[in-house]
Each structure stands twice: as structure tokens, then as C-alpha cells.
UniProtKB/TrEMBL annotation:
One of its GO terms (biological process) is nitrate assimilation. This is Nitrate/nitrite transporter. Residues 22-425 form the Major facilitator superfamily (MFS) profile domain. PROSITE patterns: MFS (PS50850). GO terms for molecular function: nitrate transmembrane transporter activity; nitrite transmembrane transporter activity. It is a multi-pass membrane protein.
Amino acid sequence: MDIANKATRIRLFDFKSIQMRAFHMSWFAFHLCFFGWFGIAPLMAVVREDLDLSKAQIGNTIIASVAITILVRLIIGPLCDRFGPRRTYSWLLVLGSIPVMGIGLANSYESFLLARLAIGAIGASFVITQYHTSVMFAPNVVGTANATTAGWGNLGGGTTQIVMPLIFAAVLTLGVSEAVGWRLAMIVPGIVLLVTGVGYYLLTRDTPDGDYRELRERGELPANRNFMESLRAFIEAARDYRVWALFVVYAACFGIELTINNIAAIYFFDRFELDLKTAGLIAGMFGLMNLFARTLGGVGSDYCARRSGLRGRVNFLFVILLLEGLALVLFSQMAVLGLAIMTMVIFSLFVQMAEGATYGVVPFMNRKALGAVAGIVGAGGNAGAVLAGFLFRSEEMSYEQGLFYLGIAVLVCSLFALAVRFSPEVIAEEDQALNDALAERELESANAKPALQS
């Protein structure tokens, strides 16, 4: 779809313009979704003892936490096309807060498994985040905007690893047992999600010129698709082999990040015999790289686009994914704590840059089915996490072996990036759109100079 008045700059300290309000609210909401989605992960050592979970059962809960997101991400993209990102995000946050708070009621493996399955639905928030920034920002900065909002959202994975053990410790000072403490601690992210859902509805709009509903009433957007039209748009996206190539690519980066978010704390807790707080702090460093690493991927993608067009975006993605695989193989071999931390940080850098580079390509795949494309590719991340989860539920395979095999898989998946091609017509169209956006940005700068001088 063609949206007017997209921003050609990212002004981080602008909280008034519609574009930048959507930018800040989308990354903040996604950040808090991670807080709820993986809030239980750093407390798993306590939950394991309380519910007497085996390694295989823990592995099953890890798989459950990301499996349902595959389905919800496939659905959420078309919902954004139909109802707009504002309403879709608000409802997801409000409804998602319920199982986050409800997980404390689990008293068996089966009920805990079902709770983690339900919580996984809020992982679809990523698709809405990418969708919202894609319709708010012009081609010259859309890669950076998408990467930054997603990266600062993913930062919630690191925040969670650090903050949840502290919340847990604070709850214990009330005199409750550990078995009660982890349950009460999970109420905190649930309440935060609920409040954010209301805030998202009040503070954002679907596009720079208003909500989809308003634009359709004014005739500035095509009439809302019926079910069959939405289905045809989804099928059109699903028939494109390039979309599935990016599905695999995203499985090899975001899928890996989700897996590490789930196992990092318990991995360092068991392998290096650390206490819960220290293990959580180290695990949090992996997610904290999102503060800038995913943005670097988007910036790199936009830079390569200015130099080499869409092909430059694709080549950049391939190189970063290849480096990610090599770094993961190296991390899996580290037996000294200091070296393990150092290689994990390097590996984290490339993982998150690859994610940013992937969604530097997504907005250009099919503008008429942006939601469907974003949803399918986003689902790839969770599909990768599900497959990786099976490696870590096996009693025979160690975490180190599982990480090594994942590194090899990433190296193979990097080749799929090279399968993404664009027709000469699309290349010419996007080159023109990029040049128009750069010209508009130059015009804004030229107009701003006299105003400053006066």
C-alpha cells in the first residue's frame, strides 16, 4: 500500500510527531512483550525444583513458548492490513497480559506447559512493530527504523534476564517461600503489559495521516479487504519462494536469539556453577546487545542500498549471517567463563545485526501484502526456535553440543539469503523511491538552514 508523508529522518528526541510516537511506542511495547514472554526463563532453576521438571520437560516448555507464536505471527500480519497496527497491538497487549499473570497458578508440568504456550502469543508483537515502522518511514531510513525498534524491543530479552531475578529477590523479602515468590514475581510483567496496551491505543495512529478507518472513509486507502481478498494477498506472499528464503534466514538469526534467551541463564548456572543472579546477569548481556547491534544491521542495510541498491541489502545480509554461524560455533567450544562471555557477546552482535538486515529487505518484497510477508518471515524466527528447542530437550545431548550443531545450521542457512532476487522493474521502482526520499530529506535540510539562521 502507498502511505503518504512518511518520515525521512529518525529524530530520537521527537515525541510529538505521529511517526516518532509510533517509533517509540512500538519498540517500548515490544520490549515489554519480551519482559512478559521470557520473564519466567531466568527463574527456571527455581521452577524446576518447585515443579520437579526433567530436562526433557523443560525443553518442551521452551518449545511451547515459541511454537504458538508461529501461528499467531502468520495471523497478525493480515490483521494489521485489515484493522491497522494501532488496534491490533493494543488488543494483543491487553489479552497477552492475562496468561502472563496466570502462569503463577500452574501447579504441575502440564499446567505450566499450557501457560507458556499461551504466553507465546505475545511474541507476535514483533510483526506489528515492524509493520508500524514500515508504514511510518521512507525507504532511505526504513531499514534503520525497523532494526532499531526491533532491536530495542529485543533488548527486553536482556532486561528480563537481569530484572526478573531482582523482582524475585524483592518478593522473597516479604517472607514468602521461593515456590510462592516466582509466582508473585510474574504478576509484575503482566500488569505492565496491560497498562501499555491502553497507552498504545491512546498515543498512536496507524499512519502519518490517521487511522486506516479514517483513510478509507476519505478514500485515501482502498476499501477494507474482505476475507477472500485478504486470503488471496496471503497466498500471493506465500507463493513467493523469496519469502520462504527469508523465513529460513530469520529462523537462523531470531530463532537462535529466542533459543539463547530461553537457555542462557540455566546454561551458565549449570555449566559454570554460578548462582542465579550471576547467571542471569551474564545471560542478560546477550540481550542487551540489542541496544545497538540490531540497529547496526539496519544502518548497514540502508548504507548498502545507497551504494548497490536492493542487491546490496541482500549481500550484506548473507555476510552477517555467515559471521553469526562462525561465532556461534566458537562460543559452543568455550570452557572458560571469561572466554565464554566474550565470544557470546561477539556472537550476539552478529545475531542481532542479521535480524536487522533481514527486515531491511522485507519492506521491499511485496508492498501490497506487507503484513503477510512480515508475518511469514517473522514466523520463521519462531520455527527456528522450535527446531532448536528439540536439541536442548535431549538427555543425551549436552548444551555445548547443541550450540555447536546450531552454529553449523546457521552457516548452511546463510546461503538462503543469496536466493533473494528482485526483478529489474522492482529495482528501478525502489531506486526511484529511494532517490525521492533522499531528495526530500535534502530539501528539508535546505529549508531548515534559513530558519536556524533567522
